[in-house]
Structure formats: structure tokens, C-alpha cells
Amino acid sequence: MSYHPAKNSTLALGVAPVFHTHGPQYHFFGYYDKSPMDAGGRRLLCHAVNFDLRLPRKDDVAEIGCWDIQTGQYQKITATRSFNWQQGATLQWMPPDYFSRIIFNDFVDGDFRAVVVDMASGRRRILSNSIYSVSPTGKHAITPNFRRLFFPRPAYSYANIADGKWNKVVPEADGISLIDLETDTSRLIITTRQMVELGHQETMDCGDNYLEHMMFNPNGTRFAFFHRWKLPNGGIRTRLYTVNPDGSGLHCFPDSGFYSHGCWRSNSQLLYWARRTGAVSGFRNSKGMLEVLLNPLLKINRMLPSSKIVNRIRSKLGAMSYCILTDNTQDMIPLGLKTLSENGHCSIRPGSEEWILTDTYPNARHRQQLLAYNTYSNRLLVLGDFHSPRTHAKTGHRCDLHPRWGHCGNKVCIDSLHDGTRQMYVYDVSEALAAISPNI
């Protein structure tokens, strides 16, 4: 590996620094399932704030801005009061052109609402509901109930309002809403109560149930989401579903109990870090087995620092790996068993299923890695290695790399603390990938 000018990071040969944001403000984008770069690859969306080392509070404001990665010029666009470190304000370029408009969430007139801004004219359109994932057609969006998520998921919700109405194990009228972006109308299409009653398990009655992490497939005909509930030992159990945008055609994937980060691989296949079905997942279905057998082991597991050896042991004990899932089937095919041994924020290179981009959480040395995995050759390339300060470790204000592809598939953007403050970094990875792939 070669050294980046910053002493706290190293980059693989062929990975070229293109641009990075800089202070005095802290800059970040958020999640890995949306690209901060426009379709032309020149403008970079960001959130800019004046604080760190804590979760956002109800009166905090994040500036919404845009960097020109060629000239380094910065433009303030607007601001939002509804954001978090992990997913920002769900800021994103609006499809289908990913160029002329942006959309994000804000707290307006006492409620969470999405705002659409025309980048040329500056004209704003305030919608009547929030958004999470926008269909690639640009005609529809889906959203969870952010008032509900405030209670079970404070690091992934907004601090503007604490409405006790939603602080229940299964709140009524909670769920996923479909928004028609052209008419500004929305309706509840999936309810949390519906998910609890579908294949009910006794552990669902012990802790908060909630729906989150919605993601459209490439043509917008299906979307994936999680039904999660908290277990008595503090853990979380997850079911992965897909469904049509109108709420019909609901499909549940193998009920192993653990699904984490993932993405659509095509219109009919998905890639998720998951526990493959087996004995451990069966134990977790039972409250009694959970308390007697698994809780002591899980407590020991949480105390162990992350390392390659520990991660491999965890993966084998829990039968965890990246898995290829086919929609409307129970197929669950492991991918990269001996190569990809850690959970990360994965995405598929635009226009090709050959490359998977992902990352790692900080290890015992407080280093986190940016990875590219070649599905054709089963080769793993460490694109970069970055320092992550212990002040942010395992907190709601942590700074995951959350790698995002540019639309052309040659550039990658990450959030990172390796230079000492939270900033965004853009790298050209095309040469590094071409060096080990004849298909580029």
C-alpha cells in the first residue's frame, strides 16, 4: 500500500485521491445506499455542522451544501433541523436524472417533511410527508414513521419531537408509507401490527417492534425492508421482506433472525450480510432458550474486540456471511465465505455485478478498511486503511466509512475521521480495480 498525505491513512496502489472536504465545519453525507455525487460526477452533496461527539439535539441545524470537486468551491444550498450522523437527512439527488434536483427531510410546521430543491432556480417544494428511499423513476418514495423510530432507534431518527404516543411495543397505525411525489399524497401500505401478526413469535411481545431500512430495486418495482424487534437480552432480531410499492406481493426471506447491511444486486436478487438458517436461529425464536443458553455466550461475544480471528469465529458460530438472495424464493447462497469475513456496508458497482464495495468497523487497533471484492475471481482488495479515533467507537456519533459509488462506477466517496475531523473523501479506484480485473 502507498501512503496518503494524511499520516493516519494508507491507500492501495492505483487508488487516487480526488477531493476532500475541509473545515472549519464538519462535513458528512450519511448512509451507503445513496450517492452524494451527481450523475456528472462533479458536484458533491453534504451536511455541514459545527459540533461532534454527541447525537444531534432538537435545536441543532445542519447546513445542506454542495462542493465542486474540480474547483473546490462550496455552495450553501439550504439547511435542515432533522438529521442524524448515520443517515443524515436522507439527503439525495432526485431521480431519474440525479442532477437537477435534490431532496431531504426537515422539520416544518411541527412535523417531518421532505423538501425538494431545484438546483438551478433554488425553488423549494415542501411535501406533506418525510421520505427515506426514492424510486428510480422519481415518481414515488417510501418512508418509515420517524416519530416512532425516535424511541427504538435514536441514532437513526430525528430529535425534533418525542411523541409518547409511539413509545409502545407495537404502536397502532405505525408502518411504511408510500408517497406519490407528483401529487404529494401518501398512504400507509405496510403496518407494524401486520408484520407482528404474520408468523408471530413470543419474543415479539418482549420489546419494541419497528420497520426500517427500505430500499427500492433498480427499476422501482419492488422494495426491501426490515421488521425488527428488541429481545430481552438487549439484542435485535430481524426479518427481511420484499414487497410491491402498493403493499402487495409480500415475501419473507429465510427466517434466520439476523440480517444486516445489504443492497439489491439486480431487479430480482439481493446481497445481504446474514445469518444462514440453523440451530442458533432456532434458539433465538424461543424466549426460554434465549435466556438459558444464548445470553451468556452473547455477553462474552460483545466483550471481545474485533479482529480477523474473532470475526471468523463469530461468522462460523453464527453461520454468518454475505448471501445472495433471490426474490420470491427461499434461496440463500453464501458468497465469499473464506474471503469476506466481516459485516460491512455493501453496494454493487454501477453497471456490473463483478465488484462489491464494502467496509469494516474499527478493529482493536482503531483502524477501518475500505474493501472491493471481485465476485468473478473471489479476490479481496483493500483499497484503503483509515484511523478511527476511540472517542467515536461504538457510539451513536460514530463515523462509519459508508462507502458510496459515483454513478460512473470509477469514484468512491467515504465519510472519515482519519484527518482528525469528520470529513468526506473522494477517490478514483478505476486503476486499482483494472489491475486485477480483465473485465474493466
Question: How would you describe this structure to a colleague?
Answer:
The longest helix has 17 residues, at 287-303. The chain contains 6 helices and 30 strands. It is mainly β. The chain has helices at 146-149, 192-197, 279-284, 287-303, 308-317, 430-434; strands at residues 2-3, 9-11, 16-20, 26-28, 43-49, 62-68, 74-80, 92-93, 101-108, 111-118, 124-126, 133-134, 140-143, 175-180, 185-191, 209-216, 223-230, 236-243, 251-252, 259-264, 269-275, 320-326, 332-335, 347-348, 355-359, 367-374, 379-387, 404-405, 411-416, 423-428. The strands form 7 sheets. The chain has a 6-stranded antiparallel beta sheet with strand order 1-2-27-26-25-24, with no helix packed on it. A 4-stranded antiparallel beta sheet has the order 3-30-29-28, with no helix packed on it. Strand 28 and strand 29 form a beta hairpin. It is globular and about 50 Å long.
